[in-house]
Fold this sequence. Notes:
Elements: H1 5-13, E1 19-21, H2 32-38, E2 41-43, H3 46-52, E3 55-58, E4 75-78, H4 87-99
Helix pairs in contact: 1-2
Amino acid sequence: MGLTPSATREFIQQGHRVLVQADAGAGSGFRNEQYRDAGCELVTSASDVFAQSDMIVKVKEPLPHEYKMVRENQVRRVSIAAQSLRVERQAGWTRCTIAHSLTP
């Protein structure tokens, strides 16, 4: 999960709508209830998040099955830890970024 519940609360307090895929924070020790209590809307799938969001925040690099989910001019933010993309994924993501006019 790219944002803690407290970080999502900050976005919400600034007037943003924040969607979180259910159980996305489990690997980091955060429960769905913590995101809900912060004001987030929980959705069932990554495709729901991609379809309804203008900015995507991830910890890991974008995966090939996610390339088709991005929309033109969508902004993505990936943590520093994921910047060492494997070469084959980086090339595919670069093509997807150009094709959809994404902001890296």
